[in-house]
Input
Amino acid sequence: MNKKKNGVIGIIITILLLIILVFLSNTDTQKLSYVESAVSSIVMPIQNGLTYLKNKLAGNDEFFTSVATLKEENDELKQKNSELEQSLRELEIIKSENATLKEYVNLTDKYKDYTTIPAYIINKNISNYNSLFVINVGEEDGIKENMTVIADKGLVGHVVSVSKNVSKVQTIIDTASNVSSTITTSRDSIVCSGMLKEKKLKAMYIPTDANLIIGDSIETSGMGGIYPKGIHIGNIEHIVNANNVTDRYAVISPAVDFEKVETVLVIKN
Amino acid sequence: MKKILSIFISLIVFLLIFLLQSNFFNWFTIGGIKPNLFIIFVLFLGLFGGRKLGVILGVLFGLILDFLSSYQIGITAIMLGVIGYLGGYFDKNFSKESRITIIIMVIGSTLICELGIYLINSFIIGSNIFILDFIKIITIEILYNVIITIILYPILQKLGYNLEEQFKQPKILTRYY
Output
């Protein structure tokens, strides 16, 4: 009888367990997540601390064992780095070369009618009172005296003396330089001479009936035998009126920045 | 032998000054105006090395400068020669110990040299003369030169006495014996 009872209880417990199992396995686990999170919130900090400690120890261990390999790696990387740097430098040089060549091409496109010789400025003036450039082409490259020198934006000057490999260029802002020129719109002829200060030009001998407008562009007139016709010089910056009309003059800002110009072209006539 | 060596050294110093003047002082300017170190250098050569050395080296340096960057050969040579001569003249008549006399000498020689070069240039090449601008530029240039002289004075004096030992007989002040 007792054994029978035990057997029935056993069967009931088993069935209950089965039901619970079925029930649990079929319900959404998320409904139980609060239990999980409660457990993990207790366990995880410890777990984390332990893992951290373990990693630290393991890492230290590795640090001591792998110094040699690290050094090797470091050397390798250094070598690679220097190689890369070198190639970068080469690239940089090629880049700048490319830019210069492009500049040349642009320049020559602009003044297609003239055959030109490209040149670098290798020395600027050492005195405060004159404005001379020394360029790196000379007699061997076919440079002769009185050849016109231009830059990408306009007129620079003319060659005053030539030696074997270098030549001197007198710029238009020099006080000894006088350029016969015309105002592009009204075709009035004027003379542009260099001023001592500020790297500007002074336009003199303006016809009394000429209409000057600020911003008008000035170009060479072709008279005088040195400069060819139609090369841009600059724009009128302001007009200075004197007591009588014949004495008035205009200040012209040259198109070329004489502080920064680096490459020029020499026109072969 | 030592004389040749010191002349050689002064040539090297000249080249150094040329490089400084054409590169460094093209952007290290006061209001776009450069100093003129050649004048200071030749003046000191004349002061310490005597009249003969001052004139010879002044003319030589001037000629080199003319060949390197000038329209006409000879103008800078003449003026630097004059400065060398003036250096010798100052040496006989003034003391080199005092800073103020040195500063006055630098002012005078800068003025004479630049004015001479400017005037001769404008007569020969026919450049336009802008008096006001010229006065403004030369004032700043003299100021710049004086500042540089004040800074470099101790070194220049030391080198100068070395030079003086080689190029001058020891002075015997007969008058006082």
